[in-house]
Amino acid sequence: MNHSLYDFLQIIDNLVWGPPLLLLLVGTGIYFTLRLGALQFSKLPLALSYVFKKEEGVTGKGDVSSFAALCTALSATIGTGNIVGVATALKLGGPGALFWMWMAALFGMATKYAECLLAVKYREKDAQGNMLGGPMLYLEKGAGKKWLARLFAFFTIGVACFGIGTFPQVNAIVDASHIAFNIPHEITAIVLTVLVAAVTIGGIKSIARLASKIIPTMTVVYVTACVGILVNNAGAIPSAISLIVESAFTGQAATGGFAGASIMIAIQAGVARGVFSNESGLGSAPMAAASAQTNSCVRQGLISMVGTFLDTVVICSMTGLALVLTGVWSMNIEGARMTTEAFSLGLNEGFGPMIVAIGLMFFAFTTILGWNYYGERCVVYLFGQRAVLIYKLVFVSLILSGAFIKLDMIWLIADIVNGLMAVPNLIGLILLRHVVAEETRVYFDALKNAVSSSSDSKAAKA
């Protein structure tokens, strides 16, 4: 590894993910939580019901169903962040990092609601008749900040090509296939490149169709395996949770020179990896939400915030608890190998690693597809439809090269471009905060009146 380049990137990463961005990310989530009356908690049952209930009388424009749009967003979020990212966070910040992932996710649900609401409200059709929406549209049309919209689109293409969309996912897939099945890295990289090229030709409908099948199935399989580890170590769960909470505020279990530094490392690792995993505030999920067939931006916002709940509060928690319960977080291993070792100890030496390998391969593969779509939408916004083919060729070539980059460098590059992408989006959310609040108020007032009218009608008939 080129240590001078690595050290330079480390300095940039510390600047990008310093206190200002952490405060902006968490602060935006706290603001919307308070402004919307803790909507992510009070309306979660309603949001969950919307996920599985088809909207009646849909006349709104859209490319795919609301469920398919959610699965597309989940395909981009449920990936290495849930399996490798959690391991990396605990390696850097100790068990306390998991607590800060939880905090970032719980407040991040309100952020995800707001950004996906705005994406549907300000979406429009591109030259090919497909929906185009996301932060670049609500920054330009809603906030009147076209320069910020262009900046966001530029950074998003960077994340798609050099961040979440390629290198971490490819590295995880080739590593997992080698660990579990002894397949050479070169073979996996070639096969993966061919598969990505084949699927992305079909566009959003092809990606959504595949994601709708893979994501629910693999989520159930992975969570079931994690529950098995929890059951096998049930007696140690209270002490594990106690260690996670205590480490978040004492820094005793985290690496670092002194307690204050350790706590900061735990917060930074937890929030950064949490954002990498659930992407709340990053501005990616709104691009998938904008493709949904729906009449209501609020309804889609509620459905979209379920993604953060499933991604971090459920799946990342399962992984984190497995790492703490089995004690592998403190071993001298990292990345996919750490999670693989936890499943090997928590389940058995044969079945456990296979679950991690298969989960990583499928989750990371769909993440690549989801981010290919996000990058494409931003290419269309900046350069028009004519540039899409060039973008796809570059993207596919980067998939092939991602197998041969060192893990530490991969996570540094991903963290930097993720942080840069989040900044213009969060500024847009703050500028449009009153629009989010008003749309929410109007929707729930109408819903309340509809329920009241229905009750009055039933009472009259009785």
TrEMBL record:
<feature type="transmembrane region" description="Helical">
    <location>
        <begin position="411"/>
        <end position="432"/>
    </location>
</feature>
<dbReference type="InterPro" id="IPR001463">
    <property type="entry name" value="Na/Ala_symport"/>
</dbReference>
<feature type="transmembrane region" description="Helical">
    <location>
        <begin position="147"/>
        <end position="167"/>
    </location>
</feature>
<feature type="transmembrane region" description="Helical">
    <location>
        <begin position="257"/>
        <end position="276"/>
    </location>
</feature>
<feature type="transmembrane region" description="Helical">
    <location>
        <begin position="220"/>
        <end position="245"/>
    </location>
</feature>
<feature type="transmembrane region" description="Helical">
    <location>
        <begin position="99"/>
        <end position="120"/>
    </location>
</feature>
<feature type="transmembrane region" description="Helical">
    <location>
        <begin position="309"/>
        <end position="331"/>
    </location>
</feature>
<keyword id="KW-0472">Membrane</keyword>
<keyword id="KW-0997">Cell inner membrane</keyword>
<keyword id="KW-0769">Symport</keyword>
<feature type="transmembrane region" description="Helical">
    <location>
        <begin position="386"/>
        <end position="405"/>
    </location>
</feature>
<feature type="transmembrane region" description="Helical">
    <location>
        <begin position="67"/>
        <end position="87"/>
    </location>
</feature>
<feature type="transmembrane region" description="Helical">
    <location>
        <begin position="187"/>
        <end position="208"/>
    </location>
</feature>
<dbReference type="Pfam" id="PF01235">
    <property type="entry name" value="Na_Ala_symp"/>
</dbReference>
<keyword id="KW-1133">Transmembrane helix</keyword>
<feature type="transmembrane region" description="Helical">
    <location>
        <begin position="351"/>
        <end position="374"/>
    </location>
</feature>
<keyword id="KW-0812">Transmembrane</keyword>
<comment type="similarity">
    <text>Belongs to the alanine or glycine:cation symporter (AGCS) (TC 2.A.25) family.</text>
</comment>
<feature type="transmembrane region" description="Helical">
    <location>
        <begin position="15"/>
        <end position="34"/>
    </location>
</feature>
<protein>
    <submittedName>
        <fullName>Sodium:alanine symporter family protein</fullName>
    </submittedName>
</protein>
<keyword id="KW-0813">Transport</keyword>
<keyword id="KW-1003">Cell membrane</keyword>
